[in-house]
Amino acid sequence: MDAEHTVVRRRGRFPWARFLHRAFVALMYLFMLCPLIVVVWLSFFKDAILYFPPSGYTVQWYVKAWANEAFANGFVFSLQVALLAAVCGVALGVMASLGMMRYRFAGASWVNTMLLSPLLVPGIVAGIAIYLFYLRAENFLDRDIVGTYGGLVIAHVCLTIPWTVRLVSASMAGLDPSIEEAARNLGASGRVAFMRITLPMLRPAIVAAALFSFIVSFENLELSLSLVGPGRTTLPIAIMQYLEFNLDPTIAAVSSVQILLLGLIMLATDRFVKLSQVV
């Protein structure tokens, strides 16, 4: 009761404190969302040369982006690479997390650091390093790697593994091992206990890892820039090439579609798996 009276007295003494707190939170949200709002706003400007205030609004830039074959092909190719990289990265990352969390061995911390290192290396540095490694591998294996679909997917898998390792390892650290042990004591084999007990409890972390892996791969530019082959262009590269000769709001329209697509994916994912549990 004394604590409640103290809180009430403090609220009565500083009635503006709650208002300032809410205003500060609202300003932080506005600051974070402002770039997205501006991009969507620019996509409806009527003028090809951007200036304020606009002379009018139109949806012609969305029609132009839809008719651009480079954007369509880049979107499909990026979608294919991101889906495959996310699936492979999540599978490998889950196995790596299980090995490090369940079987303590000498050097486990070094392995964990190595798997998380792509998060620390700048993308352009990683892209050049993988490109040089592929060149040496081509000389050794006497076969093409740079510019191939498989080489690009492998590079993106290396980019997505750290997200799975980080999220799944953190989720496994919070699991109660006695639950799986109880299943084993009741006669379940190790595989059955993992599939029926542990894996369902890891579902939020795995789904979140797949979501972030897909987004990181789909939006990647630096790594893909030196690894794509002729006739194959990801959507970020198509946007960069378009910006070399054009400065109209078409890019804002393409970016707005990406924002909407990724936002819907995150909302749908959070509807079934609460991302706040693992992020």
Report the top-level CATH class of the largest domain.
Mainly Alpha
Helix content: over 70%
Q: What CATH architecture of the largest domain do you see?
A: Orthogonal Bundle
Report how far apart the termini are: 35 Å
Query: How many helices?
Result: 13
Strand content: under 5%
Number of domains: 2
Name the assembly state.
Answer: single chain
Largest sheet: none
What CATH calls the topology of the largest domain is: MetI-like fold
Alpha-beta content class: mainly alpha
The SSE string, one letter per element, is: HHHHHHHHHHHHH
Q: CATH superfamily of the largest domain, called what?
A: MetI-like
| Arithmetic mean pLDDT | 82
Shape: globular
pLDDT < 50 stretches: none
**Strand segment tally:** 0
Taking Cα atoms only, what radius of gyration do you get, to the nearest Å?
A: 24 Å
Structure, described:
It contains 13 helices and no strands. The mean pLDDT is 82. The protein has 279 residues and is mostly helical. The protein folds into 2 domains: 16-57; 69-277, Orthogonal Bundle (MetI-like fold). The two termini are 35 Å apart. It has helices at 2-13, 15-42, 60-67, 69-102, 108-116, 123-141, 149-173, 177-185, 190-201, 203-218, 222-225, 235-243, 250-272. Helix content is 75%, strand content 0%.
Give a brief rundown of this model.
With 279 residues, the chain is mostly helical. Helix content is 75%, strand content 0%. The protein folds into two domains: 16-57; 69-277, MetI-like fold (Orthogonal Bundle).
